[in-house]
Amino acid sequence: MTKFIRCLIAHGALAILLLTSCTSGSQTAGDEPPPPAPTYPQFDKNSAFTYLRAQCDFGARVPGSQAHQDCLAWIAEQLRQTAETVILQEFRAATPFGGPYDFTNIIAYYPGDAEQQPVMLGAHWDCRPHADEDPDPALRTEPVMGANDGASGVAVLLEIARQAGTNSDRRPFILAFFDAEDSGKPGAAAFALDGWAIGSSYMARNMPAEIPAAEAVIVIDLVGQDDVHNERLGTPNGSNDYLDFPIERHSIESAPLLVNEIWTIAERAGHDAFVRATRGYVTDDHLPFIQQGIPAIDIIDLPHPEWHTTEDTPACCSADSLYQVGDTLLRYLYEVVE
Ligand SMILES: [Zn+2]
Q1: What does pTM read for this prediction?
Q2: How far apart are CA 271 and CA 236, in angstroms?
């Protein structure tokens, strides 16, 4: 055996040794690189669902009711824990159901580290006075509890306030809670507000001067529907509708880039309720801002089976549904796009 061959064998043995130690090393859990740390606060879906239940515990938050007054105080109290500024914007208005009533929009401002105009995230917090879509005619003048229609959007925004309010490494944002969204005329004409979105109309025309103007508005509405509940129990109106957020037409016409950004974030995060299909024009709280020239979009699941019926209770809602929207919006605020 020549010196050269011995040398080769020695090196070969060393190589095998190194390979072995590498292989065995890679099987040791302690040597594995840790998973990347989250770069944004995590949306706690169970906390959000607690916020949804808490609103329903007051009763139906219809205009002029004690539940409406109590819920207003409670939302403002939650926001004061983290917001820099909380504004109660009071106004008085009649609706197709009566009045005039005292109404209040709630606006909370959260400055951020990034030098950008804030984005406004909004949801309505009032309930519809009559369940006029209920399959039982005898129940059509009962109030709607609004677990999904109202409370779900508010719940998502309150959890965002709790998670993002004190972590300012993100774009600045405004949270808007619109009153008097849901007292519109049934069968209102297309493109007419007809008593819908009274609070957001007032806000869009009277943005408070003490906070910076929003560069865009993202409305969320009916974001809590529980697919499993509907699969198990069947649906009151016999439809087979499940949670989905197709692209609403006013939104894509007003703010196509923002729609694409939000839907892309949701898709990459695996939130499959966000679908690319475009579906109909919806009259909602984004419309008054569009009319004022502010880009605005609506993330909405409509129609859904319990819409404007007495079945719109926490039993038809799910924490997982709230998570799809809440996590998407947190990723947007912290610009997490993967
Ligand atoms: Zn409604």
Answers
A1: 0.87
A2: 26
